[in-house]
Write a structure and sequence with these properties.
Order of helices and strands: HHHH
Number of domains: 1
Length: about 150
């Protein structure tokens, strides 16, 4: 009879221990899941911050390059060409070609990492650069872009 009672107690103790181990394992899995989510959120914040920093640096650099390209082309080509267009000696499309040359100059001088960052942030980078060149030209003409 004693062995039956000991066997029953052992079975109950084994069931209690198994239940406790299962509960602890479930709690540990839940805790690990929460830590994983927290770590993932922190990693996303770091990646977003790095991406923001990279895009900001790229935008700053492309702004500098656009201003330099506009100033260079204005001093070398555009002023004289504008006078020819006004006099009817050159087609108006020639001025648009100078703008395209300025955009090409920006691409030539812009580091690949900046181009990659801008391509991720700006859906139509060529259009953005063309608009930026026009904006810098207007700034320069109105006196806002002089260094």
């Amino acid at each position: 009879m004693e062995t039956i009672i000991i066997d029953a107690v052992n079975q109950v103790l084994a069931a209690v221990v198994c239940a406790a181990v299962t509960a602890l394992a479930g709690w540990a899995v839940t805790l690990i899941g929460r830590w994983k989510k927290l770590l993932q959120a922190e990693t996303d914040n770091i990646n977003d911050e790095r991406a923001r920093t990279a895009v900001k640096a790229a935008v700053d650099r492309v702004g500098e390059l656009a201003l330099m390209a506009v100033e260079t082309f204005e001093q070398t080509v555009a002023g004289e060409l504008r006078a020819k267009v006004k006099a009817g000696a050159a087609p108006r499309e020639a001025l648009a070609a100078v703008g395209k040359m300025a955009v090409d100059e920006i691409y030539t001088n812009l580091d690949k990492k900046y181009i990659a960052a801008l391509n991720e942030a700006i859906p139509d980078l060529p259009h953005y650069l063309a608009s930026l060149v026009e904006s810098k030209l207007l700034e320069m003409k109105t006196g806002g872009g002089a260094r």
